[in-house]
Structures are given as C-alpha cells and as structure tokens.
Write a structure and sequence with these properties.
The chain is α+β, with helices and mostly antiparallel strands and 489 residues long. 38% of the residues lie in helices and 17% in strands. It is built from 16 helices and 15 strands. The chain has a ten-stranded antiparallel sheet with strand order 3-4-5-7-6-13-14-10-9-8. It has a three-stranded mixed sheet with strand order 1-2-15. Helix 13 crosses helix 14. The chain is globular and about 75 Å long. The termini are far apart.
C-alpha cells in the first residue's frame, strides 16, 4: 500500500471528506509532502511517516516546530470543519452530555490534538501522606522542549500578536510556527455560559482524563466574583459529569494565564474532592446549604446544596468577606493601599443533584523571609517544587517539572550507595530519607515515591493560609466566627 493512498483512506474514513473527494484529498497531501508516493512501512502512523518524508525531501526543516506544524496540518485533513464539529456536538447533546463529550474527546484524540503518545510519557502515581492526605504525583514529561529558533522568535516578537494568547478563539485552525502556537487541528465548541459566548476545547498536553478548557470568546483578564460562580453552576448544569474550576485571579497564587478569562475541567475525581468536612459551619440564612471546613492541607471552605442560587449567593458573600479579611497574627493581609492580596480558587463538581463548591482561600503577600510568597512553597522545598500552586495542585495532583526524572535517578543511586551525580539541592533531603529507612533495591522506588508525596503535602501546607495546627485552628475559628456574624446579620 502506498503511504499517501493509505492516509487518504484514513481521511475519508474519518468522515471529514467523502469518497468523491479522494483526488482532492490526495492532492492536498501531496501539496504538503511532495508528489511522489512511496510504500507505507506499517511500523508507524501514516502521519509520522509522511512528516519524515517531507523532512527527507527537504520540504520542511528538520526541527521540532516544523515537524509539529506539518503533523497538525495533516491531521487537520482528518478533522471536520468547526461548523460541522459544533453541529454534531450539539446534536449529541440532545441525547446526553456524555454522548457529546465522548464523541468530541475521541475526535480530539483521533486527530492528534490531544497528544496521547506524549502524555503517556508522564510519570504518574499516588499515595497517602503521613498526615493522611491522599495525593497524586505527576512528573510532566509530555510537552516537547522548545526549539532554539522558537525561543529566539518569541524573544524578538514585537507589535500586535495574533492570536493574542494561547487561549484566544483565533487559535482555531491557526498554522503557527516558530514562537507561535501550532493549532491547525484545534476545534472549539461554541457554548453559552452565564449568558455570554464562550468556547470549550480539550487540552493538548492533558494533566488528567479529558482535561478541558472553557475560554471566554473575548480576550479579557481573569476575575473571581459572583459571575464566576454563576458560570461554574451553568457549566455543571450542562456538563454534570465534569468538574470545573478557575485558577485564582492574582499573581503568585494564580495560574500562568491571567490575561484571558478561562476555567479548567474534566472527568477526574481529585483527592480534595474526596476529602471530608472536618468542621461544620451553620449559616442561619442558608438552611439548604451544608457548609464546613475541609480536612485538607490548603484552606478550603466547602458548600453543598441542591439550591444553586443559594450556593452562588453564599459563595459570593464568602469571597467578598475574604477579600477584606486580615489577621496580622498570621501574616494575612487583605490590602496594601489599593493593592488587593486576597482571592479564592473556586472549584465545583456534582454529586447526584447536589452542587459541591470548594472555595480555597488564597493570599499572595510576600515578605523579606518569603520574597516569592508567604503562602507559596518555601525555599527548602524548591528542589522539588518552586512553581506557583494552581488549580490542579490545589486539588491534590502535583505537576512536577520534567527535570526531576533525571535528578531522581541520581537520588536513587545515592540511596543505594551507588556512584551518582546527585544535585546539591537534593542532598539534605536524600540524607534524611536514608537515615529514616532501611533501603534495598526492592523498596527504593516506593520509598522515593512516598518521600515525594510527603514533600507535596508540605507544599500544599505552605500554600494554606490557616495551617493544620493549633494556631491554624484558632485562625479558622476567628475567621469563621466573623464570617457567620457578617453573613447572618
């Protein structure tokens, strides 16, 4: 079988084109890789072989970006147009949300927008910390390293950017290139959320199952307020099998994309969602809302109710109250002049008819001792995790940097008394692990994994504004008493 003919068969079988379009499709492929066909080797996907053919023929340069651009152009041929994708999605929504998302997710895997092969490289495991918190650890190895050409292009980029950011609607079908997003095969579902036009797409380098993004169709900054909660409820009504949440809207405690309003969601039950309420809070004005402090390393208030309007109303009051709440004894300060320091990471999921809203309290103050953030991973943990704690990690799934794969192999050698090149930054930690365990070749991996779970628990504790100790309990008591008094007055 010839490779171009093989791929043309796949394109037609996908439904993006019909048999009558075969000559047209073959010419589209030849325009990208050259006219001459050759045998399909059967060892790799047709697209991989076609990309290699284009490199061998010097039609494209041999670098990651050029390969990615061509890869996505070829897969775009297997993908229906945005209008057709939206038509099919909303037809399936008439049957059920599951039918629609199952179809759309499969499309995004089949057309290689969701990079399943790359995602499979990630290291993933879970464990329970000594403080009894179930946690998930991932070491992110899926995203390809950027080409030097791409880095240089981004550094010298001036003037108006198009698209303005990686989340903008204008990315749909955008070819991209050095220093630019490659999105030929991206499709975005148009969806109304909270009375405004939004988009819904999957994440190419997913951190969990069916990791999706909801994005405002306008490029506007992130903000957490009552409208956020209205939007989260609306999404849960439309896609009840998914959780949805927003990164906080301030630097340090927020996500990496504060310039564009967006949420993340998907089909995954995170550890925080399974954690129980440890202290019930009663709000007399909201008898239909069960509320309480969650047994979690970060400071989480949970509201549960079938009455979504009450949930939104009470949640909004909690956000407003926290925005202006200070506790100098615990370095919690709401404002410096006009500069706001408080926000929340709001997360919602469904349990049957109940809406479950977690409001995780965030504070982005800094100090001389903690210049990167008082409620941020502290310096002794940076050898494992220095980056901001965003939505996914708040819920108990660590996103650790890819550098750790190699570094932890050296730590493992050190623990086994083998020749090693352990980084100085890991040495104290490794010595402590060694002192606390009888390490053998059979148990070293599980000991090292457990040590990472413990570090991640500490990372989350650092980010909590009320610590899980006597002083933290006193802080919670003071805060909840003042909150109930304000809400019920």
């Amino acid at each position: 079988m010839k490779i171009i003919e093989e791929f043309a068969d796949e394109v037609i079988a996908s439904g993006a084109y019909k048999e009558l379009d075969r000559v047209y499709v073959i010419n589209k492929i030849k325009a990208l890789v050259g006219d001459e066909d050759q045998e399909y080797d059967g060892k790799q996907s047709p697209v991989k072989q076609l990309v290699q053919i284009a490199v061998d023929r010097k039609i494209i340069p041999d670098d990651n970006t050029s390969r990615e651009v061509l890869n996505d152009k070829l897969y775009d041929l297997k993908t229906p147009t945005p209008s057709k994708v939206n038509e099919i999605f909303w037809q399936k929504m008439q049957k059920s949300a599951n039918a629609a998302t199952d179809w759309f997710y499969k499309l995004c895997v089949d057309n290689n927008y969701v990079k399943k092969e790359a995602i499979a490289k990630n290291i993933v495991f879970s464990g329970k910390s000594s403080k009894n918190h179930e946690l998930e650890i991932t070491i992110n190895l899926s995203k390809p390293e950027k080409d030097p050409k791409a880095i240089a292009a981004a550094a010298h980029s001036t003037g108006n950017k198009y698209p303005q950011c990686a989340l903008c609607l204008e990315n749909e079908g955008y070819v991209g290139g050095y220093g630019k997003n490659v999105r030929s095969n991206l499709r975005i579902i148009r969806i109304m959320i909270g009375g405004r036009p939004w988009g819904f797409q999957y994440s190419p380098y997913a951190y969990f199952n069916e990791h999706c993004i909801f994005l405002d169709q306008k490029h506007i900054p992130m903000i957490i307020n009552q409208q956020t909660l209205i939007n989260l409820v609306d999404i849960e009504k439309q896609l009840p099998e998914y959780f949805v949440g927003s990164n906080a809207d301030l630097p340090i405690v927020g996500g990496s994309m504060l310039a564009h309003e967006h949420y993340q969601g998907g089909r995954h039950v995170f550890p925080m969602m399974k954690a129980k309420i440890k202290k019930v809070i009663n709000f007399d004005q909201y008898p239909e809302v069960k509320a309480g402090v969650v047994d979690w390393p970060m400071s989480d208030l949970r509201l549960i109710s079938k009455n979504s309007l009450d949930l939104i109303d009470l949640g909004s009051k909690i956000i407003d109250f926290w925005d202006h709440y200070s506790d100098q004894d615990r370095q919690i300060k709401a404002f410096d002049g006009e500069t706001r320091h408080h926000t929340v990471t709001p997360i919602m999921h469904r349990e049957g008819e109940d809406f479950v809203l977690d409001l995780v309290l965030r504070d982005n103050n800094t100090s001389d001792k903690y210049p990167l953030g008082i409620f941020h991973p502290h310096a002794e943990l940076w050898h494992i995790k220095k980056e901001n704690i965003g939505l996914i990690e708040v819920m108990g799934r660590a996103i650790l940097p890819g550098r750790l794969k190699k570094e932890l192999e050296e730590v493992k050698k050190y623990l086994l008394n083998e020749n090693n090149e352990i980084a100085d930054s890991h040495l104290d930690w490794a010595k402590k692990i060694k002192a606390e365990h009888q390490i053998t070749r059979e148990n070293v991996d599980s000991i090292l994994q457990q040590a990472l779970v413990e570090v991640f628990d500490q990372v989350l504790e650092c980010a909590g504004v009320f610590k899980n100790n006597k002083d933290g309990e006193a802080g919670w008591q003071k805060f909840t008493k003042a909150l109930v008094s304000e809400v019920d007055k």
